[in-house]
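User: Some background: our group keeps a shared notebook of sequences we're curious about, and every so often someone picks one and asks for a predicted structure to add to the entry. Today it's my turn. The entry only has the sequence so far, pasted here. Could you supply the structure so I can complete it?
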Amino acid sequence: MVDHEERREEVVAAACRVILREGIEAATTRAIAREAGYSNGVLTHYFADKDEILLSALRSSHRRIVARLRGKLAGRTGYAALRELLLDNLPLDDERARETGLEVGFWSRSLTSTALLEVQREEAAELRYLVRSLLGAAAEAGEITTGEDLDDVAERLLALVDGLSVRRLLYPDVLGAERLERLLTAELDRLAATPS
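Assistant: Of course. Here's the predicted structure to add to the notebook entry:
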């Protein structure tokens, strides 16, 4: 008997591989089906169209990231949790480089797909909320001191993560993992009452 959820996951995984290898525009239903080892017709039993496959791929990636973060943030609060959260969003290893590549691949498509853009904005809002909450907790605990509006600080930190991530993908020889971590930590240390 066919496990429908398993087959859906196989198709989503195939879509992710195609996107990472060839770009999001190359992720046609035909290419995804070929990558998954199925006929094009099989995909129509599990997904309405290409955008549904792409949405599923994006959500699947986000679920994996959230699950990993839960483990990393367990027992951490304030500054320590903020640092761990932001570092986890950088492509410091192969897994996170693939996640970042997938995410960046969706950015241009999101500008022309209302459904993808909505998912991107929802996920970004959750991350922004978490960063802002951790900044607030760190400020209340006296772990950071700044006269800046914490909403502005959150936006700056998120923009730094996005910028460093893209630069790491484009220029890995110039911006290695150690340098990437050092740059982010330096920005966080500017906020810290006593730099870590």
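Suggested note for the entry: The first helix runs from residue 4 to 22. The chain is about 75% helix and 0% strand.
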